[in-house]
Design goal:
With about 110 residues, this protein is mainly beta. It is about 0% helix and about 50% strand. Strands 2, 4, 5, 6, 9, 10 and 11 form a seven-stranded mixed beta sheet that branches. Strands 1-3-8-7 form a four-stranded antiparallel beta sheet, with no helix packed on it.
Length: about 110
Amino acid sequence: EVQLVESGGGMVQPGGSLRLSCAASGFTFRAYVMSWHRQAPGKERELVAVINSGGGTTNYADSVKGRFTISRDNAKNTVYLQMNSLKPEDTAVYYCKAPMVWGQGTQVTVSA
């Protein structure tokens, strides 16, 4: 079964950090571009970060540049999103995505 399972979400104070993980199974993970997206209440889902199959090329939404880092470990079939200097406006459900499947999402809440 093709599957993505996110973990690492939670509640954090402004300025804090979280690391999201997304474990892939059922497909050749190392062959595909992977991405993280997020959806805040009442808003459309937006692209946060993307990484190529080898991990050497990344791109970010302007709103997270310099604060978030996407990475991957092809030996572990896992993609990560390191989130630093978190802001209340980063509050959303975060999803990882492969071309053929979405994860179920993990909630990130940034609040004092």
